[in-house]
Amino acid sequence: MKFVVWLDEITNKDVHIAGGKGASLGEMWNAGLPVPDAFIVTADAYRYFITETGIKEKIKELLKNLDIRDTKALEETSKKIRELMESVEMPYDLKLAIVESYNKLCEKFGEEVPVAVRSSATAEDLPDASFAGQQDTYLNVKGADNVVKYVQKCFSSLFTPRAIFYREEKGFDHFDVAIAVVVQKLVNADKAGVMFTVNPINQNYDELVIEAAWGLGEGVVSGTVSPDTYIVDKKTLEIKDKHIARKEKMFIKDEKGETKLVDVPEDLKEKQVLTDEQIKEVAKVGIKIEEHYKRPMDVEWAYEKDKLYMLQARPITTLKKGKKEEKSEEVDEGKIILKGIGASPGIASGKVKIVMDIKDIDKVEDGDVLVAPMTTPDMVPAMKKASAIVTDEGGLTCHAAIVSRELGIPCVVGTKKATKVLREGQIVTVDGEKGLVYEGIIKKKEEEKKVEEVKEVILAPPIITATEVKVNVSMPEVAERAAKTGADGVGLLRAEHMILGLGKHPKKILEEEGKEALINALMEGIRKVADAFYPRPVTYRTLDAPTDEFRGLEGGEREPIEHNPMLGWRGIRRGLDEVEILKCELEAIKRLREEGYKNIEIMIPLVTHPDEVKRVKEIAREVGLELRKDVPFGIMVETPAAALIIEDFIKEGIDFVSLGTNDLTQYTIAIDRNNELVSKYYKEDHPAVLKLVENVIKTCKKHNVKVSICGQAGSRPHIVEKLVEWGIDAVSANIDAVDTIRRVVARTEQKVILNFIRRKSLEE
Ligand code: PEP
Ligand code: MG
Question: 535 exposed, middle or buried (CB, 10 Å; 0-12, 13-18, 19+)?
Answer without folding.
Answer: middle
